[in-house]
Amino acid sequence: MLNATWLETFTTLCETGHFTRTARLLNMTQPGVSQHLRKLEEQIGQPLIARHGRTFAVTGAGEAVLALGRARRAEEKLLRDVIGIDDPDSGGVHVACSGSFATLLYPQLLPWMQSAPKLAIHLEAGPNRAIQEGVLDGRFDLGILSDDPAHARLDARYLGREELCLVLPADAPDVPITFADLEARGFVAHPDGNAYADDLLQVNFPNEYSGADRLRVRAYVNQIGQIPAPVAHSVGYTLLPRSGIDSYARRGDLRIADLPERRWLDLWMVARRGRPASARLTRMMEIIAQVAAGLS
Asked: Residue 111 is part of which domain span?
């Protein structure tokens, strides 16, 4: 690649047509200007100017290099302009969270997107580990986790918590549920289902529950919006955060079981430590916090 400093010196020289004036504009000495020119010519492998006494003419190769120098100036100016404008309604934001939280968050983002044509929001659902890795490697600007990562390269902000629920069909008998009842129905599994089972079922059925891998699985669904569907049709039971239940279109066809031991999922918003937040990222964080506050 051409040396950027030598290229700028040559571009200024062509525009002023004078070595002394170029030196003054660039706060250099005249021999310094000549040295930059000579080094650039060596790098190009051709003469860039033809001297005629105290004046000079730009060669064909010099014209091509001058055009490059002006193009680089324009690109750098555009870059400075873009960096200098911190518009909350322009640019991209990448966020990752659980599927259940995404179903609550996304509708709250639509009015913002509608009013900001230059804004691009990328919302991805995934498990905790994938979200944390994505924030660390820069794929996500923000992540919503269910626990504090306590990671040296992450800043974490506690948002609140939401209840982890055992979901039954609305027509299920309103009596204390037993583990045998659940096994008879069968588990509607999903990507986070095993972790939820180890959390909620373990404390409520300690004598019968022997691990998520031993549950009788009736169905498996990996789309958060469809996980409650089998249960709404009286097929099996499932385990979900309350947000995944309340956002379901057929909420009236579901019932949250009343268990002796209630469990909660914490919500933590994480970002890479030391990275200044842009205006659009700050606004995204505010919207996320508002949605999380509604779960408490």
From this structure: 91-161+265-293
Q: What is the mean pLDDT of residues 122-126?
A: 91
Strand-pair category, 154-169 with 263-272: antiparallel
| Residue 217: CATH number of its domain | 3.40.190.10
- b/e per residue, 11-47, with b = 16+ CB within 10 A? bbbbebebbeebbeebebeeeebbebbeebbeebeee
Task: Quote the CA–CA distance of 254 and 278 in Å, as a whole number.
Answer: 41
For 197-223, write each residue's pLDDT tens digit.
999 999 999 999 999 999 999 999 988
Identify the DSSP state of 237: B
For residues 185 and 251, state if they share a domain. yes
Return the closest-CA partner of residue 243 out of 159, 131, 161.
161
User: pTM of the entire structure?
Assistant: 0.64
Q: What is the pLDDT of residues 45-67, one digit of tens each?
A: 999 999 988 889 999 999 999 99
